[in-house]
Task: structure prediction
Amino acid sequence: MAGTLEQIEGEVWPEPSFDSHLVTTCHALRKKPIDQFTVEDLRIMIGQNFGVEHLFPYALKVLRSNPLVAGDFYEGDLLKSVLCSDFIRTSDDIHIFQELEALCSLAFDEGVRQIDEDISLTFFGMPPSDFGVDEARVADLRANKLLELEKHQPWTTVLEFMRERGLPVDLSPT
Result:
């Protein structure tokens, strides 16, 4: 059984002086054993930059099984919190970035798969060519759907990270 953030960091926070859901939740989560954290618990604490260096291995374990796992907000909200954490912005650990690159690539592939599925449904599961739509038009449809998707989280953050890292963002037909 893993310890709590309070135990690991050797610091007990005083009772919260501000009565908000987020503040009381963060205080309570510092007392919860890390190995009992839910996806939402990880998302909250990493999103607030509390104990990230201790929570990061747990978040990566969860993300390895599903990079687009959802806390309480939306699909991929944990990945977005990890990518936006101060821990990532200040880290120079190449292994962390390699892992995040792989996770973002997997998430991107899943996003493209979902887009392709949407396009397939548009054509009732039949090849677009049966409707007189060529591969160039399908590629345009995919690109336009990704541009629309990119306006929403976690995609804004995932694609920004991928582009910053020089990872391919390929929208060519499959």
